[in-house]
Amino acid sequence: MTQNLSLDIHRRGLLFVLSSPSGAGKTTLARNLLATDPNIKMSISATTRPPRPGEVNGVDYHFIDTQAFGELRNGGDLLESAKVFDHYYGTPRGPVEKALAEGSDVLFDIDWQGTQQLQEALAEDIVRVFILPPSAAELERRLLTRAQDSAEIVARRMAKASDEISHYAEYDYVLINQDADHSLIQVRTILNAERQRRARQTGLTDFVKRLRDTL
Q: Tens-digit pLDDT profile for the chain (215 aa)?
């Protein structure tokens, strides 16, 4: 006699982190991943920097002043925070913890400093991917092509890239972003595999017990 078991197995969400030196392509990869995977949503950071052309408050970032940012940080309401090029960035705690509990995945486009803090706060939930450019010349070309920063800022970003890249070994996965489409396939493969980790399958232990009891 065949007995159908209740598949009462759910999944805890994960934090999917993409980091890279500025211009290596993490933001483009993040946008493409969001466009092709309905089961992950972007973490919206708070920042004290002014909006860039086309950015929308509450969609791209929560744009706030330095005083408001300090109040969030001092109150323990940020999972991570960092100062990057004279501006502060941070991740609000509440929405992230709610998403994880509901089984939703959260995508982060943050630097190595923020990733270290997320690792300290939620080590069991984080998946870290570092994106490298194929060459220094290509990194500079991408920074100049996007035309978002002055020549001075581009020079500062290039000077900082070596230090940022030195943290690659702190990540679970490292990709060389030579082709955006191929890199997206790699990122999606990593995400799908991480979703199936045994430790994230809540209710699996009980299901296996019921399964064994019927054998």
A: 456 666 778 899 999 999 999 889 898 999 999 999 999 999 999 999 999 999 999 988 999 999 999 999 999 999 999 888 799 999 999 899 999 999 999 999 888 988 999 999 999 999 999 999 999 888 888 888 876 667 778 888 888 888 999 999 999 999 999 999 999 999 999 999 999 999 999 889 998 998 999 99
For residue 23, give every residue at least 6 positions away whose Cβ sits within 8 Å of its Cβ, in sequence order, or none: 133, 139, 140, 142, 143, 146, 157, 161
Domains and CATH numbers, the chain: 10-208 (3.40.50.300)
pTM of the model: 0.84
> Closest Cα partner for 121 from 9, 35, 15, 49?
15
Distance CA 203, CA 145 (A): 49
In sequence order, the β-bridge partners of residue 91 are 80
Residue 182 dihedral angles phi and psi, to the nearest 5°: -65, -40
Nearest Cα to Cα of residue 191 among 108, 115, 86, 87: 108
Q: CA 177 to CA 208: how far, in whole Å?
A: 40
Kind of pairing between the strands at 105-109 and 15-19: parallel
Per DSSP, the residues of 126-189 read EEEEEEE-S-HHHHHHHHHHHT-S-HHHHHHHHHHHHHHHTTGGGSSEEEE-SSHHHHHHHHHH
